[in-house]
Amino acid sequence: MSEVEMENLLDALTDALLSGQDDHAVRLSRVNEEMGILTRLMVRLRDTLQPREPSERFMRQLKHDLTGEPQGLRARLGAVPVHVHVATGVAASIAGLMWFSRRQSRPNNGESADLPALQQES
Questions:
Q1: pLDDT tens digits, residue range 34-89?
Q2: CA-CA distance, 42 to 13, in Å (whole number)?
Q3: Which is nearest to 39 in space by CA: 75, 57, 15?
Q4: Based on C-alpha coordinates, what's the Rg of the chain?
Q5: How many Cβ atoms from other residues are within 10 Å of residue 63's Cβ?
Q6: What's the rounded Cα separation, in Å, for the pair 32 and 38?
Q7: What is the DSSP letter of 5?
Q8: Which DSSP letter does residue 80 get?
Q9: Which 8-state DSSP code applies to residue 43?
């Protein structure tokens, strides 16, 4: 049997096994003793090995490896320009100071009235 005929037979055998036509694959395997051995091996592999989905972590790592995009929150924040980090820090500091000063300048809404009562109990 020539190499081209062998390749064509292997191709037909593989297609038959993948499509679930085991009877057609058995008929093809009778052509040659090597084909019978290969057919039994291919059937066992098909029945044993189950397809698996890759994990999310693997997919993210592969995307990073192929595209070079930053991975994770820390990497994405590192890609933000420094002046944006500074502006965000200043805005957060001003907001915190304003909140603290408003809280200090506001009346206590009766909280101080409870304080002497608690001190008398002790």
A1: 778 888 888 888 888 888 899 999 998 888 888 877 666 776 667 778 888 899 99
A2: 9
A3: 15
A4: 36
A5: 12
A6: 10
A7: H
A8: S
A9: H
Distance CA 28, CA 50 (A): 24
Q: Which residue has the tokens 């090995």?
A: 49
CA distances (Å), 24 to each of 17, 18, 27, 35, 62, in order? 8, 11, 5, 13, 39
Assigned token pair, 23: 């009877």
Which amino acid is residue 30, in one-letter code? R
Q: Which residue has the tokens 């907001």?
A: 95
Burial of 109 (0-12, 13-18, 19+ CB in 10 A): exposed
The letter for the amino acid at 90 is: V
Which residue do the tokens 């297609």 mark? Answer: 15
What is the spatial distance between Cα 64 and Cα 86, in angstroms, rounded to a whole number? 28
Enumerate the domain spans of the chain. 3-48, 76-106
- The amino acid that residue 122 corresponds to is S
Q: What is the pTM of this model?
A: 0.38
Query: How does DSSP classify residue 54?
Result: P
- In single-letter form, the type of residue at position 44 comes to R
Taking the C-alpha atoms of residue 5 and residue 31, their distance in angstroms, rounded to an integer, is: 11
Question: From CA 105, how far away is CA 96, in angstroms rounded?
Answer: 14
